[in-house]
Amino acid sequence: MALNIIGIGLNDEKDITLKGLELVKKSDAVYLESYTAFLNCNAEKLEKLYGKKIILADRELVEQRAEETILKDAKSKEVSFIVVGDPMSATTHIDLMLRAKELGIKVNIVNNASVLTAVGITGLQLYKFGRTASLPYPQENFKPESAYDIIMSNLKNNLHTLILLDLNLKEKSSMSVNEAIKILLAIEEKRKEKIFTKETLIVGCARLGGDYKIKFGKVKKLEKEDFGKGMQCLIIPSKMHFKEEEALGLYRI
Question: What is the CATH number of domain 2-113?
Answer without folding.
Answer: 3.40.1010.10
